[in-house]
Amino acid sequence: FPSDRRNKEWSVVNGLNITPAQRTRLTATANELLEERKAIENLLKLE
Predict the structure, then answer these.
(1) What InterPro entries would the database entry show (predicted)?
(2) What is the C-alpha separation between 31 and 27, in angstroms, rounded?
(3) How far apart are CA 43 and CA 47, in angstroms?
């Protein structure tokens, strides 16, 4: 999601006009990040 960081806090930026092409790229990026997380999921688990 588009985000902003102020005073050491993150927030999602709402109300942006996102074109269909931009939405496609944002969705692709989100999916890539989820796949990367899944690929290293076993490394994130603490025993």
Answers:
(1) Lactate_DH/Glyco_Ohase_4_C
(2) 6
(3) 10
